[in-house]
Structure formats: structure tokens, C-alpha cells
Write a structure and sequence with these properties.
Layout (H helix, E strand, L loop, with lengths): L11 E2 H38 L4 H4 L1 H22 L15 H46 L15 H25 L28 H17 L6 H26 L12 E2 L4 H23 L6 H13 L4 H15 L9 H8 L2 H4 L6 H14 L2 H13 L6
Parallel strand pairs: 1-2
Length: 403
Amino acid sequence: MAASPTARPAPFFRPFDFLDRGILLAESALSFVIVITMVLVAFLAAAAQLLGIDHPLLVRSVDVQMHGTIWAAFLGASFATRGRKHLAIDVLGRLLKPRGRHALAGVSQVLGSAIAAALAWAIQGSLLERAEQLHEQTELLKQQGLATAVDRSFEFQFIIPVGFALIAVRLLLHGFHEFMAAARRGAEAVSPEAPAEAPSPPRVAPISYASGPVVFVALATLGLVAVVASGSVVAAPLWTLGGLAALTLAVPLFLRWRRTGSLAAPLESPVEVVERFVPAEAAVGAAGVVAVLAFVYFGVENLAAIPIAWGVAFFAVMALTGAPLFTFLGGLACFLWLHGSDTVPATELRVAVEDVLGEHFARMSVLPTIPIFTFAGYLMSESNTPARLVRVARAWLGWFPGG
């Protein structure tokens, strides 16, 4: 298992890298504030329960945990896409030379982008249909002179299609740059035995790698998200959390300028970028993306004629090319939903995801446990607990055969 099918993911062209790093910074700041808020709310709720304090706001603490988990998860998933941190099965790519690796990675990333975009479109359609039904019911109640509270908490789930859309765009950019790298002169010079994972950079705050313009892009992104959410039930929490996230970026930038008189990043970003634009490479990258998308379009248009066994085999091969595993699973599910069988009729994606994202989804009791497991894993990683456990096991059991 590895994060990607290439030893070194293809670097982005600088303008794309600049914009994407700004959006990444906004995502990381907002995720940080959301997780901190979830921890504080959970602590206050537990303390209030121990002290016998009962307040209406404390009743909503469970909703904060559940909705916060969804937001942090999809913002984190979008953030992880840039670094190619999604789980993937690295098999076929390692059998090829560097040019072939980059080309295969380009195919797998564009296929993954198409699947993420399909999931975003389907979930968005399902949520919009639900919002329209709720609006019609509200208007009908008003005409009948009935006033009742309407539960609009499902609007928090719009982060799901937004997260999938960001993932789709980033996977598409990865595919484009992988095709560019396959056409780049000197690509064969890359060592095929290069390590699958580069040495990890030092753990510092993301803003330490961000220059002033990148921070401004992040602040503009947070503002744009808050404006788009205006009028929804998400608006007030998002304005508050977005403002706090903006402070986590603006204050360090101001202190940097006050201390050094410059907005330049104190640390050089470890991410490699492409400085020189080569039209031929860009043309190859665009042609590769268009070719894969055309293949996807042809497959969707002729979906009913594709045997289920062929479809399953295709997605199995797709998984082996290094596509993120969630795109393999999601793509296979989409194929089976849309294709149908002799016993199960074909189902539209928006109808299928409606069953998945029903009322039970946002209120699953398991959701608040996810940050707890994540926090426990982080503590184990930082304290080097797994390595210590392995040393203990070797000391106790490693001396005899099979130990």
C-alpha cells in the first residue's frame, strides 16, 4: 500500500500551486478551528453533566460534534488530496519506467476526478431536491396559517458535495501535471528505485510556508465561503468559525511583518513546483485529460451495454493503477447503481445517494467518536508508541521461531 503510484508525484505549475496553496491554507485553518471547537464543546458538555448543569445550548453539543466531524472530515480529505495522501494500491505503476509511471498516474487521477465529480453532482442534486421539498412544505403550511419550526440541519451536509468537488479539481490537476511530466524531457532520468515516500518535512504550522499573497488568497477563500453560505442555517456558525480561522492566519502574518518588516514566508515550502511553462508539455497534459474524460463519457453513454463482470474488472484494474481507494469503491458503487441487473433496477445517482445521506447520516452516534480515534492515533504517532510496542514484542517473543 502507498499513497500514489509514482515515487515522486508530478509538481504543479507555479500559478496552480499558488492558488491551491491559498485554498489549502484556508481549509487547514478552518479545520483547525472546527476541531478545537468540537473539543471545547465536548469538554464543557461533560463538565456540565458532572456538575448537574442543564442549559439549552448544551443539548446542541451533540449536533456540534456530528456536523463538525463531517466538516472536518471532508475538509481534511480535500486537503489530503493535494499531498496524494489517500490510500491507494501501488502495484502496476511500479512495474513501469518513469514515463510510464507518470502516464499511468495521470490516467488513474483523471478517472478518480471523474468519479469524485459524479459523487459531488449526485449528492448536490439530492440535497437541492430535499431543500426544494422543504420549501414547498413550508409555503404550504404558511398558506394554511400554520407556523412550525423547520429542521434545516441537512444544510450542513452541503460540505460533502463541496469536498468532493474540491477533490475532483485537485485530482484533475494531478492528472494534468502527471501527463505533463510524462512528456517532459529528462523524465527517464528519474530513478525508478526512488523511495515511495520522500523524507517528511519538519512539523511546523502551514502558515510558516505561506507568503503574504498566499495568506491573502486563504482569507479571500474564507470570505467567499461565508458569503456563499449566507441565508442558510450554516451562515452564522460559518461566519463565526471562518472569522476565527481568519484570525489564525492574519495575526501570525501581522506579527511576521512587525518582526521582520516582510510578508515573505520564513521557511521555504518543501513542495516542488514547475517554473517554466512549456506549451508542448501543456498540450500533452491537456490531451491526456481530454482523452480520459472522453473515455469516461463514452462508457457512461453505453453503460447498459457493458457486462457487469467487465465493469467490476475495470474498476479492479483502476484500483491497481494507484487511484485513491475511495474513488475505486465509489466508482464501482456508481456503476452498479446506474447499471442495474436482472433483479435490481437501475437507480439514478441522486436517488441512490439520498438513501445513503438520509436523516440518519448526520445523526449517527458513531460520528463523534471519529475525532477521538483520530486524536488517539495522533498521540500514539507523536509519542512513538507503535515502535515501542514492536520493540517490546520482539523482546518477549522474537527469540523463538515464528515469534
